[in-house]
Every structure is written in structure tokens, then in C-alpha cells.
Structure prediction request, 368 residues.
Amino acid sequence: MILHPAVFVGIFLSIGLLFALQDWISARNWRYKISASLLVEAWVVQYFLWGAICWLTWLWLGPRIQQGRLSWILTCVLPLSIFVGVGEEMFWVLMFPTLPLGSSGWSYRRRLEFHLNAELMDNLVIFWSSFLLIRGVGYYQKYREKEQSSQQLEVQLVNAQLRALQMQLNPHFLFNTLNGISSLMHTDIAAADTMLEQLSCLLRITLERGEAQLIPLSDEMQFVEMYLELQNRRFSGRLHQKVSVEPELYDSLVPAMILQPIIENAFTHGLSRVDKDGLLVIEAHRMHNRIMLTVLNTGVGLSRVSSKGTACNGVGLANVKNRLELHYGNDQRFLMREVTPNRVLVTITFPLQFAVNSTSKLAGLGAR
Prediction:
């Protein structure tokens, strides 16, 4: 915008008016009699000419100035600056034959020599200041282009990392579920068959999501509820489940499969070691401009799991932590703690976002 001709010439005209005001005040202080309109006209015309010259220089030579080497600057731009400085002064002297004051009877050549002696250096300063401005704009544009390119590369890298984590998570989930079905094949073939049907439904949902990274919480909870139904076949009669989500949060955006690895960890390291009265509580709450997801489960507790050498911070939880960091940077929190000797609570908090199209059943490609 600063290099638009109207703005460019307008800035120079403003400078001319300031110089005219300065000259007029000086003339009054020294009791010189000079027309204020003549001062304004002379300064405004001079800086209008310079505004037009500098903008035309940008228009015709801008890219060359921004990329020109020192040899080109010395051999081409330096002579051009002298030529332009003298040419502008020649035109200006021609327009104001009464200046300088008291020069009546002077020839055009004498007046030109007088003004060149007084103002040629100023003209060169104006020209080279404009040259540096154009050069600086070029450097700034290159910096912005490099910055935007760097940001695009960063986004592409993050998306690639997220896709890699998603690819890691799906086989992990599939392997653990198939392992559970395998164990049922020896005791309850009907239950194993039902689990296979439920697993195929879960896999279909996963495929429909494609590479979506952020999805509505309603879609995530649909997946969680189907996963819980699948697990109920294995742990029938051994646990109680409670799912609580604030209604306004169903359209909020969350990372895909952010809860399933945590719930799977709760079954693997906690609920699977409980013979009866197991408890699993999944909740979603709003905290001002943030969303908090919690998973509470009973079991043997973190201390006993650690003492047996079982890694409760395995692939699934590490995947969740990595994806949270990629999505939200430091503006997220993952906390796992033992609230009582036999109860473990996982809490996730991150910024609250809402889906633009709340009616869609499955989200498209998520944005970071």
C-alpha cells in the first residue's frame, strides 16, 4: 500500500508542505517579505516532482534495484541519480523564474547554477533515500516470503507427524482388540463373533474419517461408546461405566481418537485386574475457554503397576501426548495421577474450539 502512487506522492507532498511552513516561519522571523502562496507552490511542486520520479523509479526499476549488485549500482544508478537530480532542478527552475528572490534580470543558466549549487546535494539525498526505501521493501518482501514458506513447511511437517502417529495408533488399537477376541474364542464363541462385528464397525468409522485430525466431540464419543460396548463383551458383569458430556461440548473439536488409547490403557493396566465392581468414568467439561476430558478407572493403582515393571506409559499414551503437543504446543496439559490407592485419573485440557459445520457426521481434514 505504501508504494501506491497516491500514497507515495502524497507523502512527498506532505514533506513539501512542512518545508514551506518552515520557510514561511523563518521569513517572518527575519522580516523577509515573501508570498506564502509562492513558498507553498514552490515546495509542493518540487516534492511533487520528486514523488513522481521516485514512484516511476519503483515502477520501472523496482525489481532491478532490489536485486542489483554493487557494480550495477555504481555504473548505472549513480550516474542516473546525478542525471535525475540535475533534470528535476532544470524543470523546477523553468517553472519559477522569480526565484531566488532578487534575481530579476538573471539568465536561466545563472539561476540554474545558483539552485544546483544550493540543492544538488539535497536532490541526491532524496534520490538515494528512495533507492534505499525500494531496496528495503525488497528485503522485507523476501523476508515475508521466506517466513511464509517456513510456516508452510512447518505446517506440512506437523501434518506429516500427525499422520504418522495416526498410522501408528490404528494398528496398535487393532492388535489389542484382536488379542481380546482371540481370548474369547476359547470361552464364548458367540461373544467373540459379536466383537468381530463391532470391530468391523469401528474400523469402518476409522476409514471414513480418513486423515482427519480434529473431529467433533460427538464423533469421538460415538467411537468411544462403540469401543466400550466391544469391551463389555470381555468384562461382562465386572465393571460399571459412566459417560458424562456437557451438551454444549458435542460440537467442540478434539483430536481424533484422543480418548480411546486412554480408555484402553485403563482396561489393560487397571480394570483387567479387577474381579468385580470395576468402575470407569469418562467426562467432558468446559473450563472457560478450555475443554477438560477425564478418564477415571479402578484397578491396582499406579504404584503396584510400576512395581511389577508394567509400562503404563506405553505406545497409546505416548501417542496421545505427542499429538496434543503437535496440535496445541505448550497450550495443553496431560496429567495421570493416582487419586486413591486403587483409582487412577487421567486429565487432558486444551483450548476449546467449535466445529464450523455442526451438522456433519464425520469431520473432514482437521486444521492445526
Notes: Residues 72 and 78 are 9 Å apart (CA to CA). The chain has two domains: 5-150, 185-351.
